[in-house]
Structure formats: structure tokens, C-alpha cells
Amino acid sequence: QKEVEQDPGPLSVPEGAIVSLNCTYSNSAFQYFMWYRQYSRKGPELLMYTYSSGNKEDGRFTAQVDKSSKYISLFIRDSQPSDSATYLCAMDVGTGNQFYFGTGTSLTVIP
Amino acid sequence: DVKVTQSSRYLVKRTGEKVFLECVQDMDHENMFWYRQDPGLGLRLIYFSYDVKMKEKGDIPEGYSVSREKKERFSLILESASTNQTSMYLCASSPGKTGANVLTFGAGSRLTVL
């Protein structure tokens, strides 16, 4: 079983839709939960991170962590064509030297 | 506002050539990483370094070496490039002992080996 599982998609939604991206994990020791956005042929850009459990909101983006279910989510409200990218989740136990990644979900927002 | 800089965005090399990929970070981070990213395989760790002159092998170190002579600089070396090393190479850093343990990536270096 992989440490982190992420549905690769692809996911296609109309502009303005609410998007839900998800990852599950198996290691209960994970403390930091990160979401990255990666445009084609570019490096991943950190969108948000959460330490331990709970929610975090930044503009149209909300990150949620449910440690009891070992499940994290990224919600995008009022999705825009510029949100079209691959979204990667990543996790760390807190040492900062061993990160586990999902395989990424490809999102297309149709104008 | 660039924080992790990779010296080359696109490189084309021939089989057997020695290749240097350079990475510099300006955030005073302890840890630096080299990953490669391939379609369907995701991100795979090649090497990481937790201090100057210190390194640890990742999941796929074969055919690669690294050098960290200064805290801000981490180099990836392909001693004799092969076609199966055609890939996107990503450098990243994290704070280490202090600070939020999240990764900051560079823009990537796309290497093609002919």
C-alpha cells in the first residue's frame, strides 16, 4: 500500500464550479499536509499547508485535514480557467527531510 | 521573489556526457533535495542533503551524485548521461530544525538525453 493515495483524474469542471481534490494516507504520524499546484512544464508551487488537523482558508482555497479518517481535501471555490493545473498533495511527519507525495490530480476548468 | 533557483530550465545532452544541474536557495534552509518527475511515476527522490557536505541517498540514486559545498547550493551530477535519465529534475528545500517543514520547489530543469 502506498503511503499517500491520490486520484489522478483527469477532472474537468465548468468555470465557477466548486472543485474538491482529495488524498488519503496510511501513516498516522504525518503532521504537515501540503497542497501544490503545478502548471505544465513548471515546478510545483506551494498553495497551502496545514499543521496537524483542522481547516485553513486562503481566498478561494480551503484545505481540510481529517486525521481520524486519514483524509485530506482541497476545495476550490468559483473555479477559474487559470486554476487548470495538476494538484499534488504531500505529507511529512515533521522532520522536514522525508516527504511523501500523491501522484497528482489533473484539473481542467472549462470557460 | 524567487527563492529556489535552478540554473538551467532546458538542457539537451548526448549519451555519455557529464551533466551538472545547479540549485541555489536564498531562505537559509538546512535541507535540500533533488527529485525527478516522470509521467505516471510521480516525484521520486534522488538525493537529499541535511547539511553542508552531508547527503543521503533517496529512492533512485543510481547514476547520480550530488555536491553541497555551501549551505545555499546543491548540485546534481550525472557522470555519464543515459537516455533513461531524460526527465524533469526538481530541486527543493525545507527549513529543517526550525520553521514549518514544507518544501519549496524550483522551476525545474527539463533534461533531454539523446
Plain-language structure description:
The complex is a heterodimer of chains A (111) and B (114). In chain A, strand 6 (54-58) and strand 7 (61-66) form a beta hairpin. In chain A, strands 2, 4, 5, 9, 10 and 11 form a six-stranded mixed sheet that branches. Chain A has one domain (4-110): Immunoglobulins (Immunoglobulin-like), CATH 2.60.40.10. By secondary structure, chain A is mainly β. Helix content of chain A is 0%, strand content 56%. Chain A is built from no helices and eleven strands. In chain A, 33% of the residues are buried. Chain A is globular. The mean pLDDT of chain B is 93. In chain B, strands 2, 4, 5, 6, 9, 10 and 11 form a seven-stranded mixed sheet that branches. Chain B has strands at residues 4-6, 10-13, 19-25, 31-38, 42-51, 54-57, 65-70, 73-78, 87-94, 104-105, 109-113. By secondary structure, chain B is mainly beta. Chain B contains no helices and eleven strands. Chain B has a single domain (4-113), classed as Immunoglobulin-like (Sandwich), CATH 2.60.40.10. Chain B is 0% helix and 55% strand. The chains are: A mainly beta (111), B mainly beta (114).
Find the CATH topology of chain B: Immunoglobulin-like
The assembly state of the depicted protein chains is heterodimer
Tell the overall outline of chain B.
globular
Helix proportion of chain B? under 10%
Intertermini distance of chain B: 34 Å
Provide the number of structural domains of chain B: 1
Under CATH, the homologous superfamily of chain B reads Immunoglobulins
Structural class of chain B: mainly beta
Enumerate the spans of chain B where pLDDT stays under 50 for 5 or more consecutive residues: none
Task: Bin the strand percentage of chain B.
Answer: over 45%
Main sheet properties of chain A: 6 strands, mixed
- The average pLDDT value of chain A, as a whole number, equals 93
Based on the coordinates given, report the CATH architecture of chain B.
Sandwich
What is the level 1 CATH name of chain A?
Mainly Beta
CATH 2nd-level architecture of chain A: Sandwich
CATH superfamily of chain A, called what? Immunoglobulins
| Unreliable parts of chain A | none
